[in-house]
Amino acid sequence: MASFEIPFVKVCGITREEDLAALEQCSVNSVGINLVSTSPRCIEIDAAKEFCLKATELDIYSVVVLRNPEDALLRTVAQDLRPDAIQLHGSEGPERLSDCGDCGVIKALSWSGRDEELELAESWCNYMQKNAERREQFRAFLVDAYAPVEGGGTGKQARWDLLHPRPEIFSDFPLILAGGLNPNTVYDGILETCCDGVDTASGVELEPGVKSEILMQQFGLAANHGFARKW
């Protein structure tokens, strides 16, 4: 299994084997595999399993994305697919950590100033303070644009202005920036938010689920340039 590395550079919503293989040459260290049924980037679970295995061969960190999953699906992903991490992209509470087996966990949430966003983040932080063994399992918070219907992958930009200075609730954990990132915006996003990682889906696509190797290469280079400047 690949290790979680900072800076974290992820291309999400891979649907084709050739796009996954291309990541090895794109300065990207993580891939997102989407199992959210309402997403145009959702793939079948058998294909997701193959992608997880291939990512391991390439030493690329594999992340399976779920949104408010049924218990059976979450257990299947944790036990059968065994990705490096599971990204919970809905309103999941921290009690779902225990259903993720040995997989790392990334908790996605929007950050638009709504009270429920702060309450959800606080519930995760409080839970991990009381359950040290689960703190070891947690990898990062991922902040995406507010998209109550789609959840993510909309191309909308997250609220960078609400992430710098970094909110205290995120101070003890890595922070991954998502939402509207592409080769032209990721550098500024890194410098403006001082994030620890970045995530793109639509920003490197020709159409939903179909990636451009050139755009992925440009995104990876721009992201790594931004992190080098930041540090």
Tell how many strands the DSSP assignment holds.
Answer: 10
* Uncertain parts: none
Helix content: 25-40%
C-alpha-based Rg, rounded: 16 Å
- CATH architecture field: Alpha-Beta Barrel
CATH homologous superfamily label: Aldolase class I
Describe this protein's structure.
- 33% of the residues lie in helices and 20% in strands.
- The mean pLDDT is 94.
- Helix 6 (186-193) packs parallel to helix 7.
- It is globular and about 45 Å long.
- An 8-stranded parallel beta barrel has the order 1-2-3-4-5-6-7-8, surrounded by 5 helices.
- It starts with 7 loop residues before the first strand and ends with a helix.
- The chain has one domain (8-230): Aldolase class I (TIM Barrel, Alpha-Beta Barrel), CATH 3.20.20.
- It is of the alpha/beta class and 231 residues long.
- It contains 7 helices and 10 strands.
Secondary-structure map:
Elements: E1 8-12, H1 17-22, E2 30-34, H2 45-58, E3 61-66, H3 71-81, E4 85-88, E5 104-110, H4 115-130, H5 132-135, E6 138-144, E7 175-177, H6 186-193, E8 197-200, E9 205-207, E10 210-211, H7 213-230
Parallel strand pairs: 1-2, 1-8, 2-3, 3-4, 4-5, 5-6, 6-7, 7-8
Antiparallel strand pairs: 9-10
